[in-house]
């Protein structure tokens, strides 16, 4: 079986989407993120921007092979906001993404069912408004070798069309290369069998 070595994410932040239901306003946005640390500043920024907002609910998913996620209802009834938003992240099958839905209460209660529908629809509209891009999962290999091995290592890198991420030339040489995840084993083996070359997965 072919190992899955691509994942989908969003190319750029979405425009702000407004969804209205019974005078409540739901402002939805999607952001590309690479770590959980980026979530809080974005949410704080939205609270400042919409100081009349009652709730800034969100969900995020991170990771390419191993995925982690979090859903936050921000004071809405349990699972009526964060999970419906997360459900849309799953249904679009994207990762490294944060979706926020900021609600300004319009005076009429929507009930839990109404809220679930509203948060789900707003999140869906935000995802429909962005470009979804496919990226390749890359692994990094660290090669250590002496100068006499330089030629054959470089030749292999060129033949295999591998990307060099960094190089350090001291007493010995250290190269970091980036390899498409599905080809890692094969490339690892190639360098592992070379005399005088030490290879490890980072």
From TrEMBL:
GO cellular component entries: cytoplasm
Organism: Flagellimonas hadalis
GO biological process, one term: regulation of translational initiation
Annotated protein name in UniProt: YigZ family protein
Database matches in Pfam families: Impact_N
Family: Belongs to the IMPACT family.
SUPFAM superfamilies: Ribosomal protein S5 domain 2-like (SSF54211)
The Impact N-terminal domain, residue ranges: 22-127
